[in-house]
Each structure stands twice: as C-alpha cells, then as structure tokens.
Amino acid sequence: MAPFPVTCRDYREFLDALGPAAGASHVPRQSEKSGHCWPYVEGKGFAIPKAAWLASAPEADRRRAFRLADAPVDWEEDWPVLGISWEDAAAYARWFSARHGLAAHLPHEEQWEKAARGADDRFFPWGKRFDFDNANLNESQEVAKPCAVEAFPGDESPFGIRGLGGNARDCCLNDPGGEQARWRISRGGSWPNARPTARATYRAGAMPRNV
Question: Quick one: pLDDT band at residue 35, thresholds 50, 70, 90?
Fold first, then answer.
C-alpha cells in the first residue's frame, strides 16, 4: 500500500489525462445526483477550487465550483481526494497501473486491516489507546474539516502507512457477500466521523457508484 492516500493533486492529473468528456464522470461531487465540485476550465484542465484559485478565477468558472459536502472550508491540493465513489477510485487505480506499468488496485479489506493492525492486533493504527490528537475525526479540530495527508502524523500504522484511522475513508476491493454482494466495502474513519470509526476493525459499505 502507498504510504499516503491519493491526494487531490494526484487525482486531478488523472482527470486531466482522461480529458473533459471522460473525466467528467469521475469528478469529485457533493452527492451522486449533484453537479461537479471541480469545474473544467478550457485550455487549463480541471480546477481544484482552493481559496487562491477562487480569488482570481473568472466569475463564470467560480459559479461552477463547489465545496465538498458539509466541509466548512475550500478544497486543498494536499487533501486526500474526497467526494468520489468506489467506481471512481477503481478507475484511478486502472489508470495508475497503465501509466506506471504496475498492477495497482484497491486493497482487499483483509490487506487493509493487516496494514492497519500489524502483527499485534492493535485496536487503532497507532496502538491500543484512542486519542483524538492521533487522527482527523469529528472532534480532532476546533472545527471539523479535511486536512492535508501529512497532517496528524500520529495516524500511522506499523508499516508506515498514514491516514488509516481518519481524514478519508478508504475504498476496498471486495464486496461483503451475502445479501449485500453488490456493495463494496470501505474501511477507516473520516473527518466528519466519530471515534469508533477509527478502529481498525470498523467496516462500512455502499453501492459502487455512491459518493
């Protein structure tokens, strides 16, 4: 597994490589039925609407940009990419594989849990005791919001993998089976989530196209 989550900067490179038509179906969004959060700017590619960009962009482009759902701040390039679905994440992995000549894929949840827990079956990626200072969750900052992937250095697993406890939930390769076989698993906590989601055994899931 990569030491850090895929950032918004990384993901924009993927969208720009696809171009405006193909990239449009994978742009971060507030919900599956909402419009895109990142506008496509002719001749420049997809824009991450961070504060500095919004301050200088033409009004027509600003009107097509939106914050992440429930986020109280503008986007940042160093955030983990948010507002995408399992299908979007899988498409990025396929593109990354082709670009770098690697067999990259989303982690199976058993791979993810091993990466988070190491060999000592710890409760959290950093150990057995919880502390909001270790991961970006709903009470970790004065105002809950996403942060850069290098923030919260305490959120590091025994294998040196960051961000498995908070900031952004991770899409996993597999489905849960049974009646939810069409779903896909996600693991880990996220910036608006409560402390139980930081546990390495926490599981969630959604339909592959759900944001």
Answer: confident
Q: How long is the chain?
A: 211
Q: What is the residue-averaged pLDDT of the chain?
A: 96
Q: Residue 134: how many CB atoms within 10 A of its CB?
A: 21
Structure tokens at 109: 């949840």
Q: Under a CB-based contact definition with an 8 Å cutoff, are residues 52 and 36 in contact?
A: no
Report the distance separating Cα 151 and Cα 155, nearest Å: 9
Q: Which two tokens stand for residue 50?
A: 């961070």
Distance in angstroms (rounded) separating the CA atoms of residues 158 and 66: 37
In the numeric block, which tokens belong to residue 41?
A: 């700017």
What pLDDT shows up at residue 173? 97
Q: How many separate helices (H) and strands (E) can be counted in the chain?
A: 5, 5
- Produce one character per residue of 79-102: b if its CB has 16 or more CB atoms within 10 Å, e if not: bbbbbbbbbbbbbbbebbeeeeee
